[in-house]
Amino acid sequence: MPAPFDRPTTHHLPALRHLTVTAVTRITPVFARVTLTGPDLDAFPTTGPDDHVKVFFPHPETGDITVPSPRLPGADLETPRAEVLARDYTPRAFRPATEARPATADHPATEACPAELYLDILLHGTGVASTWAASARPGDRLVVGGPRVSKALPADTGSVLLLGDESALPAIARWLEQLPEGTPITALLEVTDARARSYFPDELRMRADILWLLGEHGAGQLLAALRGLGPLDAHTFVFGAGEAAALVPLRQHLRKDLALPAAQVALNGYWKTDA
Fold it and tell me: Measured on CA atoms in the order 263, 173, 122, 89, is the torsion positive or negative?
């Protein structure tokens, strides 16, 4: 029997995938969904709800995409290296390639479709990813590395508590999709832009009891809402993501005040202020 909250981990072979944009869709006023394809997507692994990839963006002036490479022994350490513009993202979805099929008595003919990877990028003003996504067009290129590991859903979970800011919404959407039907889910989500509340389609909104907290009403709302829940059930798994420093008081409350074991809590810093 697996231990409570055990999350079996699958390690994937390192990979850098050179991909091409085929579509950019504004799914909400503050999120752009970028569709990527290319031969390198064959056998792309993304099974865990919080998998993440590293996306390498083109330099805004040259259009070149630089990926890091180790320095060889004896290399000139003073030689400047090209700037690496990279950010981590949760793949919103992956669709494997499908083959063309002739029509049958029961089904119409279907065309072959290439594999597609979908990334949802938050549009929050200036920034490497946000600036690129705001003007991205079909034919643009990106390089995607990973994912390195996939963690399965936690075992022996009675209910789930999801915490986060806008950057966590794609991962939280994957949790809502992958958790078994009937799992009680509570989500406390603090967003800077109220328009981010339209990110989840209706079928996902119905999966959870969601409390939206608007940043315009002041800091500390997420911690206050978490404290307002009181003690958590021994079978409640907690996943959270967002700005790294903002997660510190949440982690202290969960691990110290409520004395939850480490396996019951997974909080991930997705970004840092001014980083």
Answer: positive
Distance CA 57, CA 112 (A): 29
And the tokens for 209?
């009891």
Question: Is the separation of the CB atoms in 24 and 137 below 8 Å?
Answer: yes
* E runs forming strands in 106-235: 116-122, 141-145, 149-151, 159-164, 185-191, 209-214
CB 164 within 8 A of CB 240: yes
Q: Supply the pLDDT for residue 261.
A: 96
Say what the pTM is: 0.90
What the chain holds in terms of domains, given with CATH numbers, is: 9-145 (2.40.30.10), 157-271 (3.40.50.80)
DSSP annotation of 149 reads E
Span 185-197, mean pLDDT? 95
